[in-house]
Amino acid sequence: MPPTDLALIPGTTLQTQLAARAALDGRCKGVRAFLPFAGPAIIASVGYMDPGNFATNIQAGSTYGYQLLWVVLMANLVAMLFQAMSAKLGIVTGRNLPELCRDQFPRPVAISMWIASEIAAIATDLAEFIGGAVGISLLFGVSLLSGLIATGAVTFAILQLDKCGFRPLELIIAALVGVIGLSYLCELVIAPPDWPAALFHAVVPQLPDKSAVTLAVGIIGATIMPHTLYVHSALTQNRTPARNDHERRSLLRFSNREVVIALGFAGLVNLAMVMMSARVFSASTPGIADIGVAYRTLVPALGTGAAGVFLVALIASGISSSVVGTMAGQVIMQGFVGFSIPVWARRLITMVPAFIIALSFNSMTAMILSQVVLSFVLPLPLVALAVLSSRKSVMGDFVTGKATAVVAVAATVLIVLLNVVLIRQMLP
Q1: Whether the predicted pLDDT of 38 surpasses 90
Q2: pLDDT value for 2
Q3: Which CATH class name applies to 38-426?
Q4: Which of 102, 172, 197, 416 has a CA-to-CA distance to 182 between 20 and 30 Å?
Q5: Is pLDDT of 152 > 80?
């Protein structure tokens, strides 16, 4: 493909496409070959480190110490499977998951999925938006309203980078993800966990009581997000169009490596959240389920510096995940029904309910209710991915193998059942 054609691919630069082609042609190796394809899984990984994860992980560590670390690890492994399947769908077909649902399923089913997915996207963005606002409010000592305004302004500014191509936006998201990871590395240095106990409970399943079962389900529900599955397929579908099956296989190898690295990093961050909470809160303030309470408890326990680092991580999490939530909303609308609205309009649509709910209700209650909404919607992309990935008419020679399909279906059924348990537990 000549260089002039490479530059025509939306959202890319000539330099990026030349680097990608050099990697696919085998003219560069190692990290240099990997870098042109890095980005989609990093953006998707943000959904696994959002404020909802902060809430469930803090509660898990403060209530049960290290005993639920294995749940965090298992949820992340399942997430890797489905994110890899989503990326594969985009690479092989050149279409994203919502577009394929519109083409492959009956119209009433596709419309119903669109409505449910839009509600889930708004609910997701609501929790993330509020999480960032709470962090700004606590860190700078301003009102929650001021935190909401600041979060909205920053996320809107970051979203404008999309006009410059995908790279600037990906770099900002990667930087925010790095801030979250660095923050929790600092927390582990300040409050080192009991490493032998942590390693033991990361691989040995334990559910001490019924409340632990409920919390374990909550961790899984907060980890595997519907919108990340939709957006990941969109981020890979036209990034580097494959010219033949050999290139598709190469793209899949690069994609799978990135999924393992990005979601592996997200998993380590979640494990660090639980370990920090177990180390600091389990003895002094057990059962913490409120981010504000966690911050105020950290101040006397570890000092203002550690508490500030915690809030910095929360703000980076809220802003980055809110940006990705808005991107996912665009993908969902355009894919399922074939039209889209300006980014600023979608940002306003999700900001208005966030302002109303955050200023009218307890912010933690609002975040928990948003997770219940996600529990209802999560089966839709899981079932759609399992069905479409197994159709030869969609995937051709890249159809999902029987072993992978069985694991995906089993994981889907298990997650659906666990979410039913979560919903029943939350209802009066």
Answers
A1: no
A2: 39
A3: mainly alpha
A4: 197
A5: yes
Residue 176 clears pLDDT 70, i.e. is over it: yes
For the chain, domain boundaries = 38-426
Confidence at residue 1, expressed as pLDDT on a 0 to 100 scale: 40
- Summarised one tens digit per residue, pLDDT across range 397-415 is 999 988 988 998 898 888 8
* Angstrom distances, CA of residue 157 to CA of 54, 165, 393: 25, 14, 41
Report pTM. 0.88
Integer Cα distance of 44 and 227 in angstroms: 9
Q: Nearest 5°: CA angle at 392, between 391 and 393?
A: 90
